[in-house]
Amino acid sequence: MQATENIRRDTAGRRRDVLERLGSERDMWVSTSHPDHGPHQVPLWFLWDGQAVWMCTGADSATVRNTREEPRVRLALPDALDVVLLQGEATCHSAREVPQDAADAFVGKFGWDPRTEEAPFVYLCVTPRTVRAWRGVAELRGRVVMREGAWLE
Hints:
Layout (H helix, E strand, L loop, with lengths): L10 H14 L2 E8 L3 E11 L4 E6 L3 H8 L2 E5 L6 E12 L5 H11 L10 E14 L9 E4 L2 E2 L2
Antiparallel strand pairs: 1-2, 1-4, 2-3, 3-6, 4-5, 5-6, 6-7, 7-8
């Protein structure tokens, strides 16, 4: 983990930094919840396609089971000094149903194609509705950079 500067960024600066991290980072924490079993959180590889986050996990995973019951999810990039939190609803796509461009981009980023695995995998797609970003107490005010699916100015 790398320390970040403690200079208060405006909304445009936060948005720029969020988009840069979404385009360059590999791992994201995924939080789901099941009505009977409660919360569940795991790290997954992710791909940002400019509009949505794509992840892939085993078809029998708790993440997939939970998402099918309750599609509202929270996502977090793994850095407590440079926080990025996303909220949205996840849709599940089997390897046969995943859009070709998303699956190909996933392969391009990770060098792994879940569609070729013997065990079934499911792609999760989350289009963020809310994004929050902050670095330290100085940036708590104004931390919402996307609301209702629209980036703030």
